[in-house]
Structure formats: structure tokens, C-alpha cells
Amino acid sequence: MSIIDKLKWRYATKKFDTNKKLSAEQLDELLEAVQLAPSSYGLQHYKVLVIENAEVRTKLREAAYGQPQITDASQLIVFAAETNIDEGYVKNFVDLIADTRNVPRESLVGLEGMLVGAINGRTPEQRLLWAQKQAYIALGVLVAAAADLGIDAGPMEGFDPAKFDEILGLKEKGLTATVIAAVGFRADDDHFSKLIKVRRPKKELFIHI
């Protein structure tokens, strides 16, 4: 199947088969795809929580208006934006570049200065919005990668971020829940899987200039 065929196959799964779970290898491959997602300057302005604990997921389901995907999927993935993107965050990133690429730290001073300028040129509110946008890019990569791997995914915004933050202790970690996705395998009787995908016609969606 081509990537187009796989994207036609996927849908926002509403009902998961509770007896089917991702293998460790499938989960690792899916998470590696998320790790490789692009982000502004490569800063990866978020962390990704993989929730499997049944007790925690029951609490999260209550904070997501009772949606069954939260507890029934193989895993729940929470993309949590960093709330403290500052000069220290930039320093740690530049340290990682130097270590990963085995280059002198001093050769990256110019890059560090540019990144610090990009950070300081934004208000705290703008930094958070920036971080949340990057989390959505990672979500998009997860959805596409899941389709490519034959894994079902249901991206979700229908939850109370403040309650998620409280249940998961995210505030203390300098994080805030931004968007989530349930991953696993569709139930045979999920009628949503049988519906024809509805998308705007290409002539209405695309503008060629």
C-alpha cells in the first residue's frame, strides 16, 4: 500500500478492541517516529507521555468527558508542551548538539545566541503557544506513522487540560497537556470505520499561485 492508501485507510478511531495491544516493537517504532518529528529549530518544545496505567487512565477518562478511547485503547499518548522555554532550555539543547555531533561547544556560540534571541523575543504566552504548535506537528507525525504501521489512532482535543495536568503532575514538571491520541486497534463493530472519508475537494482546498 502507498502512503495515500494508508491515509485513506486510517480514521479517527472511536472504538478500540480492548483485547488487542501494540507489541513492544510496534510501540517503539511508533515512538521513534514521534522522536523524529520536526520542530522549530529542533527544540522539541514538549514531552510525550505514554499512559498505560489502568488506574491513571480511569481518572483521565473522567477528565475527558467519559470518552472510552482513553481507557480502551492500547496506549494513551499525551503531548505536553513545555511551559518554561528559556535560556536554560536553549543551553541544554546546544549542549546536546555538541555532544551528538561531537563538535566543540564553543563553535555553537553563534547558534546559541540566535536561539536565545528567538526565545527572548517572545512573551511567556507566545512561548507557550509556540510550544503547543510544535506538539501538534508531532501529533501529525504520530497519526501518519500509525497509519503506515497499520496501527489505529484517535487524535483528541476533548479533554480538560487543567485536570490532566493535575492527575499527571505536569505543572510540577513544567509541562501542560496540549493534545492527546489513543492508539491501538479498531473494534470490528466501530461503525465509524465503515464511513466514507469526507474531505473538501482538491479544487476547493488547494490554491496554486
UniProtKB/TrEMBL annotation:
Keywords: Flavoprotein, FMN, NADP, Oxidoreductase. Residues 7-184 form the Nitroreductase domain. The keyword Transferase does not apply. It holds the Pfam family Nitroreductase. It comes from the Bacteria. Its cofactor is FMN. InterPro entries: NfsB-like (IPR033878), Nitroreductase (IPR029479), Nitroreductase-like (IPR000415). Belongs to the nitroreductase family. This is NAD(P)H-dependent oxidoreductase.
